[in-house]
TrEMBL record:
The keyword Nuclease does not apply. Residues 75-84 have a biased composition (Basic residues). This is Coiled-coil domain containing 77. Residues 57-98 are annotated as: Disordered. Residues 59-68 have a biased composition (Polar residues). Residues 85-98 have a biased composition (Basic and acidic residues). Residues 101-157 form a coiled coil. It comes from the Eukaryota. PANTHER family: COILED-COIL DOMAIN-CONTAINING PROTEIN 77. Keywords: Coiled coil.
Length: 157
């Protein structure tokens, strides 16, 4: 019975690890979307909202804007490029490094939590197996004693 319990716990830990990976991936994807939206600029008829949790079947219809005859100015972001021996490379800003550091910190925290859970599970498994072993040794000793008593009772007759 305990074997099944430990297998379920291991499966739960694998699912937690996958969930952590997916959350980090979602965070990275959101950052990429924000970056791409910043590069392209907002569209006149489109608004994007980000929720921490997805809404439960909520739909909001948008009113269509009437064209005014003027084209909206699109903001573009310029990326500084420098020549290197490998060719053109974009110089990354400290902000992008900060975002990468945040993602890496989340990964480290998730891995530390997973490692702690795995360690705790392993300790519980070892303790359980040692307890099972102790019980089986006691049962074997009792059975041996009963057999010895039965043998001595039969030899006395």
């Amino acid at each position: 019975m305990q074997v099944y319990l430990f297998q379920e716990r291991e499966q739960a830990l694998r699912l937690y690890a996958e969930n952590d990976r997916l959350k980090i991936r979602e965070l990275e994807d959101r950052k990429k979307i924000q970056h791409l939206l910043a590069l392209v600029g907002p569209d006149a008829g489109e608004i994007t909202y980000f929720h921490k949790e997805p809404p439960h079947k909520v739909t909001i219809s948008q009113k269509q804007t009437q064209p005014t005859g003027r084209e909206p100015l699109k903001r573009t972001k310029t990326v500084t490029r420098r020549k290197s021996s490998r060719g053109d490379e974009a110089i990354e800003s400290p902000e992008s490094y900060k975002k990468d550091n945040q993602t890496l910190l989340l990964q480290v925290e998730a891995l530390q939590a997973q490692m702690e859970e795995q360690t705790r599970l392993a300790k519980e498994q070892v303790e359980s197996l040692l307890e099972d072993r102790r019980i089986r040794v006691e049962e074997a000793q009792l059975q041996h004693q009963r057999d010895q008593d039965r043998i001595s009772a039969l030899t006395d007759k």
